[in-house]
Amino acid sequence: MSTLAAAAPLSSPSPSAARIWTGRILSTLPVLFLLFDTVIKLVNIGPVTDSFRQLGYPTTLGPALGTLELILLVLYLVPRTAVLGAILWTGYLGGAIATHVRVENPLFSHVLFPVYVALLLWGGLYLREDRLRALLPLRNPARS
What is this structure's pTM? Predict the structure, then answer.
């Protein structure tokens, strides 16, 4: 290999660095939304109690769910436990989907909103976590 060919990868941006930053940016939107959702449940403001009443849940449940969401956020944001956090968020968001189906809320704005959040959480994690990409390859590595 020539000296020029060996130096070329050092002068261009690393694709893995770009992928990692794209994953971080992609993860930011759902994390900010979920952090907001966590805070309003911990504070248990009026709109939270109103929505709990509309969904058929006890109005005092807000702080407990906010605490759970905070734990899940920490798990998702710590690189070592991020995959576990994403798995647990998937279960939590599945419960939100079931709730919206039960009360017959609109499909695209309410029922599928947790799916959008989960896709962003998993998409960002997939881009920034090599172990997850190795576990769930989107293409056959033998063909590459």
Answer: 0.84
